[in-house]
Amino acid sequence: MTDVNLKLPPTPEEYGANERADSPETRTEDLFSQSGDSISEERQLGLDIVYPLGWSGSYYSGYDLVTVHGIRDDYKTAWTQEDGTWWLKDKLFKHVSIREVDYSYEVDEEAAIFEVDGIGLHAERLLTAYSKDRASFEETEIDRPIIWICHDLGGTIVKEALCRAITNSKKYGKIAILTTTIIFLGTPHQVLSVPDLAEQIQSTKIF
What we know:
The protein is α/β, with parallel strands linked by helices and 207 residues long. Helix content is 32%, strand content 14%. It has one domain (38-203): Rossmann fold. Helix 4 packs across helix 5 (153-167).
């Protein structure tokens, strides 16, 4: 019998390691670690990059992973499991180099999201902060691709943000055209009218 040496395909772990080995690290990590050696575990309102827990490293083949939570979520724990695991970085995108960028907003009874143009307001805040953030990239990372993950009404904020971004690239840069993936989790995609959507939002208040 003839011996045959079979070359098995790489395991997911090997694939991730090889992909990163072929893609050198960048200076982006330096740009967003201004606090030196300090480690932050607390998410903040607005656009927030929790360094280094939301990072798997910064590589030229990496992605920005932008999250927007829903109106029933606690923004401080929306993207972590009970044991504190950052499930997007550590599980869903375990083999991909990502920089998790969270956009958070208040959901109490008096929150801006429940105002007449609350969705537009947060879409604008998200775009303004995120475009400013990306302007800090070194030249070789300006075209870093974007993945969006949004839950519930967070998906509506993202849709509004991308509609604005694609019609005003001079103000917001390439955010729209560099979007490669949008993952909607329980996002309402069809309503009869804006007043109908507003009524649905009001009915979800659980205070």
